């Protein structure tokens, strides 16, 4: 499945609005899942933007589908806080 198809399906299903979220990165995993990182176009600032991370399963039966397994919204300051405690 093409990256553009994945983003289109997420938009059509109402999982992510193109008007609100700008896709930054898509990583396809070997296990049939995908990680998608978005940046919010409306809220947040340049110094502290708001991000959306989606972890989804790619279903390739008769028709292609994308099923969201997890979604997390966070700010840059939240990521800095997590990394401070996650690093050994």
Describe this protein's structure:
There is one protein chain. The chain has 88 residues and is an alpha+beta fold. 24% of the residues lie in helices and 50% in strands. The protein has two helices and four strands. The chain has a four-stranded antiparallel β-sheet with strand order 1-2-3-4. The longest helix has 11 residues. The protein is globular. The relative contact order is 0.19. The mean pLDDT is 92.
Summarize the structure.
The protein is of the alpha+beta class and 88 residues long. The chain has helices at 3-12, 76-86; strands at residues 21-28, 33-44, 49-60, 64-75.
Task: Looking at this protein, list some descriptive labels.
globular; four-stranded antiparallel beta sheet; alpha+beta; 88 residues; 4 strands
N-C termini distance: 37 Å
Total helices: the number is 2
Estimated helix fraction: 10-25%
Uncertain ranges = none
Principal-axes geometry comes out as globular
Q: Which strand order do you get reading across the main beta sheet?
A: 1-2-3-4
Can you count the beta strands?
Answer: 4
Helix- and strand-based class? alpha+beta
Summarize the helix and strand pattern as letters. Answer: HEEEEH
User: What is the C-alpha radius of gyration, as a whole number of Å?
Assistant: 14 Å
Oligomer description: single chain
Mean pLDDT: 92
Largest sheet: 4 strands, antiparallel
Beta-sheet strand percentage? over 45%
Q: SSE layout and pairings?
A:
Layout lengths: L2 H10 L8 E8 L4 E12 L4 E12 L3 E12 H11 L2
Antiparallel strand pairs: 1-2, 2-3, 3-4
